[in-house]
Every structure is written in structure tokens, then in C-alpha cells.
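re the bet — no i am not wrong, look at it urself. input seq straight from the record:
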Amino acid sequence: MNTMMTIGWDDFVKLSSSQKASVLKADAGQGMFHILLAQQFGRKELDDLGDLATKIRFIAKTDKGAAFLGSLLPQKRVMLYFSQPSTRTFLSFLAASQILGMRIGEVRDASVSSEFKGESREDSVRTFSSYYDCIVMRTEIGGLAERMAWVLSNTDRPVPIINAGSGKDQHPTQALLDIYTLQRSFEKAGGIDGKTVVFVGDLARGRTVRSLSYLLTNYKKVKQVFIAPKQLQIGSDVVEMLKSKKVNFELGSKFSDVIREVDAVYMTRIQDEWDQKKGESACIDISSFNFKTEYLHKMKKSAVIMHPFPRRAEIPTEVDGDERAVYWRQMRNGMWIRTALIASIFGKNKAILDYELKSRK
């Protein structure tokens, strides 16, 4: 039974993220359908997706393998509905869909859609669901992806919604690629378990941080450190979540004090697009929260530097050449993990695993 058809929107929206994830898992059974929250992914799902993404990377290296991947979903159509500006996430989903042979539609500017005439976002998404088999949404409106997943689940055409960034709430697929990057970075160093991850910058408004912080709780003895100006420190909801899961974490404001102990540095930019008053972020001194080239001499040789991009001055380009700077690899990982995610939604994961196994014989 579709649980989202038996629960009203007013009741669904009052649920905690974990409770919403339970509803979504119940609807999807053993597979995946709507992808809205980091809370939908446990350790097994993360391990399985990472393994599938790696196998897709291996398969795609040959012409025969690429042709196989492209033959998996040519009958499916995906709508990329990005009403909020994006480069990496949009292109990553575009490339992932192309790898699987999907036909692609896109709306990236509401001024060229019927929203310009006053059509509601809800009606726009309902319209897309009439023509497409999957909708990838990026929006500045918090909760809209959840709302549309509930709406479509209560229609005769409940196509899956993938949250590609929703307001300041969550960005689950960015967190998935971040986890995949950590999996690959530490695959010869005991994995993610036991590592120390420091988040730096605008943590109050960084939805990537919120999602990744939760996903890291699936791993054993991971310490999370949050370094930010007081005005931009991580929210109380994340703090309470970490406390409830008995996670070792610290809040601080001195980046230089922790640089020697970290295994992964997750840099973020100032999210001034969320300013309540124009220019208010400019009043915050963030210079001490930038990554300095001198830190390269203090960090562990095995540590990694990450960034969801776009970047500003928080990481100088001189750092790009250091082997521990994995943010360009992180971007490419996004294409592979999103390919794995879409393939899983449409039940093509087993076909990929079987093909990869045969190709190695």
C-alpha cells in the first residue's frame, strides 16, 4: 500500500525527517522511489550505491560497456526542473541520465515556462509528470520537493521525485556524492569509520552540510567538527540530532586549532543568496575561515580537502595541485553516484551488477 496515499499532507509535513524517511521506505518496499532526504539512506544503502557507482565507472570505460549502460533506460524520460541556478548538479544529473540512455527535458528558467503566466509550481510539476517518468527538482523553496512527492503519490501517475536541493533544508544527492568521495578516498585506510571530518564556513545555511552530517552518523566513531563564525554555526536541529545519536562532535571558531587532527576538511562558501537583508553577510569577517596554503604542511598526508562548489576565496587555487585536494574528483563522483541512484530507482542495479561480473571473467 502507498502510505503517502493514506496520510494527509498536514500530517506528513509534521513528521520528523526520520519519520518521513520511514514512510518513503515503506512506499518503495525494498527498492527506491522518491529521493528526498538523507535519512532515507542507511549504511547498507550507502555501501550498495557506492559499489554500484564504482561498477558503472568500470563498465563505462569500454565502448561495449557504455553501449550496455545506454541500453538500460532509453524508453524512460527524465525532466530536469531547476528553478534555482545550478551548474554542477544540473550537468551531473544530465550526464547521469545520458549515460543510461534516457531522453531528457529541462526547465531552468521560470520565465520561459507557464509560471511566467502565473502557473503555480505545483501545477508545473503535475504537468511534467504527464510527460516524464522521473522529475529531478532543484528549488529555492524549502519543502517543495516533499510536497510534490506527496501530491504525485496521490495521483494516478506517481512518478519519482529526486530532490536536487530544496531551500536551506537538504541536498541528499550532494551528500551521496560526498560519501562516495570519502569511501573512495579512504578505501585503503579502513574506510570512513573512525575518521574526523571538519566542516568549515557557512554551516547555518549550507544544506549540503546538513545532509552529509546525517549520513556520517551511519559510520562508527566518526567525529564531526563544525568551525564557523557564531552567526553561521550549525543549527540546533543538527546538534540535537548528533546528541540523540551519541555522535562525538565539537563546535568551534578556530580553524587552525583542528587542522592537524582532521582526516577530511569540508569547505563551504558564504551562502549570501539566503540573506534576509541585502549585504548582511558582508558584515561577517570570514577571512579566518578560509583554507590557507600553510595548512597543507600541517595536515595529515592521508587527509582530503573537499568542497561542494562553487567556491570563492575559501580555497586558493594554489591548493588545487595538492593530491589531497579531491574536489574536482568529487564533482565527477557526482555523475557516477547519480547514475547509480537513477538506475536503482528504475530497478536496473541487478542488470548492472550481473554485467560487471560477467565482464570480469
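see?? The chain has two domains: 3-170+333-353, 172-330. told u. also The beta strands are 77-82, 103-107, 134-139, 161-166, 196-200, 223-227, 249-252, 264-267, 304-306. so pay up
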